[in-house]
Design a protein that fits this description.
The complex is a heterodimer of chains A (160) and B (587). Helix content of chain A is 47%, strand content 11%. Chain A has 160 residues and is of the alpha+beta class. With 587 residues, chain B is an alpha/beta fold. The chains are: A alpha+beta (160), B alpha/beta (587).
Chain lengths: 160, 587
């Protein structure tokens, strides 16, 4: 999902209409929006505010409160490195460091070619396979710095 | 093929991460050709050997561990077709083995009675294993007797605080109003805890049945499961269970022909640890920022959309059908005087046999980590066991004989919490662990209470300074002062318990803090600014380390002792991992 493209409100209108008349649905609406657009665009927030009669400030408050919501588009491959307790003692900091080095970006950033985004998450709940990361939802366990470098290189190569 | 053969593949999230889907697909292909029964199941519990495959020949069970898709054809050909089990992959076989294996025999499974045994997507299998019998009985004995039975059982909340479940139900039962809410708190946010996920993935109906029994008791017609969005498989299996239960009359209008109606919907959390707190969870269910509010009014009086609301944790609810079916007395016969029943722990960290274990309350931590967990994976001694996540604390080795019950654990400064049990060996730095948890709570603080918002930030700054070798003598006192103030002046559990990891490490591992502050040393060799890698006389000049070094900081010629350029070294530890001669030391 590129930010340069004009954001169409068609998808947002469909999502909002399926929730109309129900109470307490703002988070659910935003989750669907993010699923459809890859992030929560400003223009869509403005649109929801008008449709659901909720102040835009409240919507912005909710979007920025929860870790799940993003205000910027992400890369094609979202890498989420688990930094739960078990992963931390198992070497998660080295995993993130190796990925930062391999991708040339910092935690929380997206590569210039839009191929990768790197994120830290609190706990993925696969503690016995620590350290763990997911790429677009698929989990990789018992990681080492070398292993993650290889995984990333394979994705890059497959793309070329 | 002689006896009827059934194959179970563990396809919980952990299993899938280890490659269970591929293994399952390979079996599926073979099962069509070879005509044996194949079932997916949830977490079998022995996560240390994922992917796990169970082969049943009638009642005879063989458990295979560390299976990859490449092993499948061998298991099929040798075991299933020719009756010869594949020895090299077996972790447990025959009944004797199950009796002898302490991983199995020391456990008592009430919550996990079906997890890893049945197909979580099959209502039929749940019914075959006493499913919805508790609900049937509840409808027969009536609301008051259900609460009475839970009172007899002595069940206390498994989410952390350990409040008596029956009392909570009684408050909601007594609350006036026709519209009430029964909520399942599945916002399992403690890093290091994954039992709620495993139960929801592996046995979703047990949670729904518990929820329905509770709803019947308090008089609720609306049900909500508030679950972390990070658990997609749990959401998927639970959604299927809700649909199936509805279609078959276990949820919905006039359940099992009675006049009790109850519907359940799923609300996905959006990633905020504080939403595990009841009033914050309620705000989040209503679609708002998940910030806690002052109590009273308690949720039992004014909860979701200002209606009387009762909130229970996943594990608490999974106990309920068993209690109603077998009676509170039977449940109360397990455990200690004040902590009844069992507790599920997610055993992780530096442990040999990590996984999901359920033990009777009162078992000592030592029994859990050594007898069941097999000790450390590294072979190094245990330094501490972390219990209760960011709200809990580190229990030192010398206190491992503490029994797991609410009061004994509280006395150590840790808490029972939701059941994360992370084992740390001598290579873990306790100051670093305290910093790790503070970093977490500081990020997750919702910002409402000043001491929680700013106090945790200041504590984190001090801890970071100490780990960087810039600690000052007064820092320990400052930490203690701040900790007391944060505990006193925070509205909710997050702030009130946030200082616990610092306080327990200060209590039991003060010498490590002092080493960091006074001697500028990290005894465990974790805090990078305080350590140096050096090559000792064991070096034979094999050049392996200099090839492994990502920044070319190691120089030396073949067969001569190498040296590390300290200015270039990034302390990544690659050299130590590569060296076969113990020639690199951390100072």
């Amino acid at each position: 999902m590129s930010s340069k493209k004009e954001i169409s409100l068609e998808k947002a209108a469909k999502i909002v209409s399926s929730f109309k008349g129900k109470k307490g649905v703002l988070i659910q609406v935003l989750q669907k929006i993010q699923e459809a657009y890859g992030f929560v665009p400003n223009k869509v927030m403005e649109f929801i505010a008008n449709e659901l009669k909720i102040p835009e400030s409240v919507i912005f408050g909710v979007v920025t409160f929860y870790a799940q919501f993003r205000l910027k588009p992400i890369g094609e491959n979202l890498i989420r490195v688990c930094h739960g307790t078990a992963c931390h003692v198992g070497g998660a900091p080295e995993i993130t460091a190796a990925l930062e080095d391999e991708l040339g970006i910092k935690d929380g950033e997206t590569t210039e070619d839009g191929l990768f985004s790197l994120e830290s998450v609190a706990c993925l709940g696969c503690c016995s396979l620590a350290p763990v990361m997911t790429i677009n939802g698929d989990a990789y366990g018992k990681l080492t710095p070398d292993k993650v470098r290889n995984i990333v290189r394979n994705i890059k190569e497959a793309k070329q | 093929m002689t006896a009827k053969i059934k194959v179970l593949v563990g396809v919980g999230s952990c299993g899938i991460a280890a490659g269970a889907s591929k293994v399952y697909d390979a079996f599926l292909k073979a099962s069509k050709e070879r005509n044996f029964e194949l079932k997916p199941t949830g977490c079998i519990g022995m996560c240390y050997s994922e992917v796990l495959v169970d082969v049943f020949e009638g009642d005879k069970r063989t458990v295979y561990g560390n299976v990859t898709d490449k092993d499948v054809s061998e298991i099929v050909e040798s075991h299933i077709i020719n009756g010869k089990p594949v020895e090299r992959l077996i972790i447990l076989k025959s009944d004797e083995d199950f009796g002898e294996s302490e991983f199995i025999s020391k456990q008592k499974r009430i919550v996990l009675r079906n997890t890893g045994r049945i197909d979580p997507k099959s209502l039929k299998e749940y019914l075959q294993n006493d499913g919805y019998k508790g609900l049937k009985k509840a409808l027969q004995i009536g609301r008051e007797n259900v609460i009475e039975e839970i009172k007899k059982s002595g069940l206390r909340g498994r989410g952390g605080a350990g409040f008596p479940t029956w009392m909570k139900w009684k408050f909601a039962y007594d609350a006036p109003g026709n519209e009430k809410y029964m909520v399942c708190n599945a916002d399992e946010g403690d890093p290091g805890a994954f039992m709620d996920r495993s139960v929801l993935e592996g046995d979703p109906h047990s949670v729904l049945e518990g929820l329905a029994i509770g709803a019947f008791a308090i008089g609720a017609s609306n049900g909500i499961v508030y679950i972390r969005a990070e658990y997609p498989l749990a959401i998927k299996n639970l959604s299927k269970a809700i649909l199936d239960a509805k279609e078959n009359g276990y949820l919905g209008k006039n359940i099992l022909g009675s006049n009790f109606s109850f519907s359940v919907e799923i609300k996905e959390g959006a990633g905020a640890f504080v939403c595990g707190e009841e009033t914050a969870l309620i705000a989040s269910v209503e679609g708002m920022r998940g910030m806690p509010r002052i109590r009273p009014p308690f949720p039992a009086i004014s909860g979701v959309f200002k209606k009387p609301t009762n909130i229970n944790n996943v594990e608490t609810l999974a106990n309920i059908p068993w209690i109603i079916q077998h009676g509170g007395k039977k449940f109360a016969s397990v455990g200690t005087e004040n902590s009844k029943g069992t507790k599920v722990f997610a055993l992780a960290g530096k442990i040999k046999k990590g996984g999901l274990v359920e033990v009777p309350m009162g078992m000592t931590i030592r029994e859990i980590v050594y007898d069941i967990g097999g000790g450390t994976s590294s072979g190094k001694p245990i330094k501490a066991v972390q219990l209760g996540g960011p709200s809990g604390g580190c229990i030192p080795e010398k206190l491992l004989d503490t029994p797991v019950d609410y009061e004994s654990l509280n006395a150590t400064g840790a808490i029972m919490g939701s059941g994360g049990m992370v084992v740390m060996d001598t290579s873990s730095c306790m100051v670093d662990i305290a910093k790790f948890f503070l970093n977490f709570t500081q990020k997750e603080s919702c910002g409402k209470c000043t001491f929680c918002r700013i106090g945790t930030k200041r504590m984190l700054e001090i801890l970071t300074r100490i780990c960087n070798g810039e600690g000052e003598e007064e820092d320990i006192e400052k930490l203690e002062k701040l900790a007391t103030k944060i505990k006193k002046s925070s509205l909710c559990g997050l702030g009130q318990t946030a200082p616990n990891p610092v306080l327990t490490t200060l209590k039991y591992f003060k010498d490590e803090y002092i080493a960091h502050i006074r001697n500028k040393k990290c005894p465990s060799g974790v805090c990078k600014p305080l350590i140096h890698y050096r090559i000792n006389d064991n070096c034979v000049g094999c050049t392996a380390c200099s090839k492994a070094c990502p920044v070319n900081a190691i120089s030396g010629t073949v067969k001569n002792k190498h040296t590390i350029n300290q200015d270039a070294c990034i302390k990544c530890g690659q050299c130590i991992k590569t060296c076969k001669f113990d020639a690199i030391t951390i100072e």
